[in-house]
Amino acid sequence: xxxxxxxxxxxxxxxxxxxxxxxxxxxxxxxxxxxxxxxxxxxxxxxxxxxxxxxxxxxxxxxxxxxxxxxxxxxxxxxxxxxxxxxxxxxxxxxxxxxxxxxxxxxxxxxxxxxxxxxxxxxxxxxxxxxxxxxxxxxxxxxxxxxxxxxxxxxxxxxxxxxxxxxxxxxxxxxxxxxxxxxxxxxxxxxxxxxxxxxxxxxxxxxxxxxxxxxxxxxxxxxxxxxxxxxxxxxxxxxxxxxxxxxxxxxxxxxx
Length: 256
Ligand code: SIN
Description:
This is glutathione-specific gamma-glutamylcyclotransferase. One of its GO terms (cellular component) is cytoplasm. The structure is a single chain. This protein is α+β, with helices and mostly antiparallel strands. Helix content is 37%, strand content 24%. It is built from nine helices and ten strands. The strands form three sheets. It has a five-stranded mixed barrel with strand order 2-6-3-7-8. A two-stranded antiparallel ribbon has the order 4-5. It has a two-stranded antiparallel ribbon with strand order 9-10. It is globular, with a radius of gyration of 17 Å. Succinic acid (SIN) is lined by residues 30-34, 74-75, 124, 159.
């Protein structure tokens, strides 16, 4: 444990979050559904990244995007040191030496922190545990090399499907990209189709701005499109774009 940046400490949560947020407010980083489906009551949404992790669709979903009989596939992030010991066929495409995972962080004011923490614990109940790690905010409206001060990292909570969890895909054959694509193309759960989750992730990463695409995600999109057919995929992608716009607009209005 402890391979991510200095200052990162992984703990099972038992209200330990208050140790990380002494003022009582909360920052939570989302790298999956939290990017397009924000938690309630946030007052800031900031694009950026965490280092020291790799995002993979290696988490089985028995609830949101699958069923106990036919689990779907959702993302988790894996600590880089551990990921390096796994036989990942896409390893050669991970160009970043820092293992950067893009996403969005949300600030929850102290008045709602407890409530939102409980909400997230329930939403992420299917195999996720809490880590705390530095989040690097990025102003994507600026040129990458613009002369200006870099915002300081912010400690964030992040929900991780750890490899020790039963939902993590331990079987190498199940982690194969084409096998993951096939499961995604046919799975469905309480929150909707698994393909929808994939396209929402693809589109919301696009929407974050500069350089936030993820090779593992774009490769899966290509494979799932081939399985679904171009027309079905185009309709789902267009819907994903509309849904993200609506979800972020509503939550921003609602959170004001
Ligand atoms: C996250 O979004 O940060 C966790 C994974 C998910 O709920 O998709």
